[in-house]
User: Which sequence fits this backbone?
């Protein structure tokens, strides 16, 4: 069963790395029947063409006896919807390794915090050619139990950071002359710290592919998203005047602050930005973000969605 973002909610009740490909053993044989990938070509001005596999929203729901009963019950209820998350993640990573491709994941790899989830993430990324951005679920103890802000994130940030392969606030990875920049917008805002760090990445003068979890507002994507879910759009940076019909709780959650508005206005003017890769919505979408950059939203990995990308 595939859930879009609305159905999913209902079911719920800078570091820079070398670009060389490490020698790794295949994780497992890629079972193409588990994936429904879309193949795309993105022109970024690479010094040499290269491949990537982009997925998002795997939603691992793993627990063991170290968790309290409430967490075990949560896992059981979520597995009914996201039980294929781990094996489809494995298939996507194996596909990347088979093709010597960079493996990209843009958040919600796990569904909630647990010892088993974090340990599994750490083990699966060890020794792989991967780069990630965080999602909101990376820090969720239980679903919807508290206001999601920096204080809430801080309760589990250290555990999540130890499990993932790069800095979860902002990180960069240069591959064949292309600067991949992963940044945190998991709660529909961008902090001043992230804004400043992204500005430093632009100063490197390389073409940029940005990774984030929540898609960035554009008029076209807003129209589609609000049509799918009238209570809100689930996008970062929706202008406040477009939020008048949002559910009050979602309006408070997603109203952009001054820093986020400034960041998005600035980002649209950056000619080095060539693409944005994201997830969160659980469906595919592609469209212009700025004069130079296209935004690519990938569907949910737990249902088999993936982008196979040729960067040129």
Assistant:
């Amino acid at each position: 069963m595939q859930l879009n973002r609305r159905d999913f909610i209902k079911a719920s009740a800078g570091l820079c790395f070398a670009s060389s490909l490490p020698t790794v053993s295949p994780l497992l044989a890629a079972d193409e029947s588990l994936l429904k990938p879309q193949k795309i070509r993105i022109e970024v001005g690479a010094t040499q063409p290269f491949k990537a596999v982009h997925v998002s929203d795997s939603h691992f729901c793993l627990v063991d006896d170290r968790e309290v009963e409430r967490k075990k019950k949560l896992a059981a209820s979520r597995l009914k919807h996201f039980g294929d998350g781990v094996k489809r993640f494995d298939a996507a990573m194996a596909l990347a390794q088979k093709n010597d491709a960079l493996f990209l994941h843009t958040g919600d790899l796990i569904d909630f915090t647990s010892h088993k989830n974090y340990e599994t993430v750490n083990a699966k990324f060890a020794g792989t050619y991967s780069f990630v951005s965080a999602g909101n679920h990376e820090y969720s103890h239980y679903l919807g139990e508290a206001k999601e802000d920096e204080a809430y994130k801080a309760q589990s940030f250290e555990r999540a950071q130890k499990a993932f392969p790069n800095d979860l606030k902002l990180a960069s990875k240069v591959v064949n002359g292309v600067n991949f920049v992963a940044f945190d917008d998991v709660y529909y805002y961008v902090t001043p710290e992230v804004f400043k760090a992204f500005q430093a990445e632009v100063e490197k003068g390389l073409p940029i592919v940005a990774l984030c979890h929540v898609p960035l507002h554009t008029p076209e994507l807003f129209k589609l998203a609000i049509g799918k879910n009238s209570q809100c759009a689930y996008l970062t940076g929706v202008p406040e005047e477009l939020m008048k019909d949002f559910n009050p709780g979602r309006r408070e959650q997603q109203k952009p602050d001054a820093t986020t508005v400034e960041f998005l206005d600035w980002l649209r003017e950056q000619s080095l930005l060539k693409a944005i890769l994201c997830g969160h919505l659980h469906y595919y979408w592609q469209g212009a973000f700025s004069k130079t950059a296209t935004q690519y939203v990938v569907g949910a990995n737990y249902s088999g969605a993936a982008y196979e990308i040729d960067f040129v």
User: Anything to note?
Assistant: Confidence is low (pLDDT under 50) at residues 4-27. The radius of gyration is 18 Å. The domain at 5-311 is CATH 3.30.750.180 (Transcription Regulator spoIIAA). Residues 276 and 295 are 5 Å apart (CA to CA).
